[in-house]
Specification:
This protein is of the alpha/beta class. It contains 3 helices and 7 strands, in the order βααββββαββ.
Length: about 160
């Protein structure tokens, strides 16, 4: 079809919004900083797209701006309780896997999560199973390959 027969206004549809989690938006201090940085980057991208009259980029930047604005507005800062001996949001926990390996994770908000960096989302099945457990406690988590068992080795404040 020739471009002459295409309504130019329909070429760039607005993009659907990024899904926002239904879970409470808990955030550590570093997580709040990351959300703030992402929001500022989205604002800059949106302004640049407006200045360039780039409709595709404007749609994408607008979607990101709406997402990060919502995440910042709903962020619930949480500071872990330093004297607690049970796993809580913001704590680091070392687990022994059923295959003998040990791993350490810090339980953080969804926007801060980076499993390769040892940052485990509070909404993940493992984090949900670990919250409230103490040293020596065992948890079992369902995985696509079957249930896995983990033992809490240490719990550290941040």
């Amino acid at each position: 079809m020739s471009r002459a027969f295409v309504n130019e206004d329909s070429c760039v549809d607005s993009l659907p919004d990024r899904p926002v989690s239904e879970h409470p938006n808990l955030a550590t201090e570093p997580g709040l900083v990351l959300i703030g940085e992402a929001l500022e980057a989205a604002r800059r991208d949106y302004a640049a797209a407006q200045a360039a009259s780039d409709r595709e980029r404007l749609a994408s930047a607008g979607r990101d701006l709406r997402y990060w604005s919502a995440r910042r507005a709903t962020a619930q800062p949480r500071t872990p309780v330093p004297s607690s001996d049970v796993v809580q949001f913001g704590h680091s926990v070392t687990i022994a896997r059923d295959d003998g390996r040990r791993q350490t994770f810090r339980i953080v908000g969804e926007d801060e999560a980076d499993i390769k960096g040892g940052l485990l989302s509070v909404t993940s099945p493992l984090a949900r199973a670990l919250i409230g457990k103490g040293k020596g406690d065992s948890v079992e988590v369902a995985t696509p390959r079957g249930a896995k068992s983990y033992e809490v080795v240490t719990v550290d404040f941040g």
